[in-house]
Predict the structure.
Amino acid sequence: GAGFKASITQIPRIKYAIESDIEDIAWNMAAHGEVGDEHFGQEIKKAIEEEIIYDIEHIYMLLSMLYDAQSIQLVKENIESGTNEGVTYALELLDVFLSEDLKQRIIPVLDDISYVEKSRKLEVFYPRDPLDEKLVLKFLLNRDFSQTNRWTKSCILYQIGLMEIREFYFDLIANIFNPDPIIREMAAWSLNQLDVNAYRENLERIPVVEKRHLERVIKAPGENSVLRFDKVVFLKDIDIFDDIIGLVLADLIDITEEIMLKEGETLSLGDSFNEHFFIIFEGSVNMLVDNKMSGGVRKGEFIGEVGYSNKNSVMASEDTILLKMAKDNFYELLSDNVSLARKMVEFV
C-alpha cells in the first residue's frame, strides 16, 4: 500500500511471498502451452493469462513494500506501455535495485518474451514435468485456490463436460460438494453431461434446497434459471466489462439477483432504481416513464438512471431475464478497477 515500508523482520516473509507468486506464474505459463485449443480451450488459456496478470499485480504491490514505491510504479507503467523502450527501461531500473536472487526470477516474468521462453528461464528455479492436455486440466482443477482461482476452475469443469472426459468422474463428484456455488454448479453440469444416472444419484446426497437449485439451473429446455457460469460468460461479452478479469466478474455475479419477467409483465423500478443497476440478460423491455413508453432496452444493455420519479417501470416485450446488482456492492467490488468505474460513469 501507499507509503508502507517493510521492517527488517518482514522482509524475508515478503520475499518468500514474491517467490511463491513467481512459482505460480512459472507453473501457469507452462500450463498455458499445454492446454489444448479445442472446445473451451481458448477461454481456459485466457483465464490462465488473467491468473498471471493478477499475480504480477500482487508482485508489484509486494515490491513496493520492499523498495521505493514510486520507482516500482515507474517500472509497472513502463512494462504496461508494451513498447520495447518501455520494457527495456523498466528492466534496467529493476536491475539497479533488485537483489540478485529476486532479479533472476522477476526479470524473466516481466521481460517482453513469450510464455515458452519465460518458463524455460524460470525452470532452473522451479523445475516441473511437462503434462499432457488432460493431466494439466486435472492439476489446474485440483490446485489450491491461491494458485488457480474459482473462475479458472469453472472453465476447466466446463471443458470436462464439453469433452466428456471420463477420467474426471470422481473429481466432478467431489466438486458437487464444493462450498463455492459457481464450482458446484459447473461440476454438477459436467457430471450430467458425462453420466446422467451418476448425476441423479449424487444429487440425492445434497441438501434439498441446493438440490432444487441445481435442478433448476441444469435444466430441461424451458426451465428458467441460469448457471452463474453463463452469466459470467455473458458479462465478459459486454464492452464495458472488457478489461475485467473473470474472477472479479464471478464475484460480481455472486451479489447479483435474477428477475424473470413474462411477456407483457411490468416491473416497477420505484425506489430501488437509485440503488441498483439492471442488465438485460435475455429478452428485451420497454421503459415506461410516468406510464408512457420511452424506448426499448435490449439484451446486454444497462437500464440507467431515468430521473428520480417513483413511477418508472419496465415492461417485458418478450420473456425476459434481468440481472439486478446493488450499486454499492458493484462499486465496492470494482474499486480496484479505475478504468471500469470511469466507463460506468460515462455509461450511466
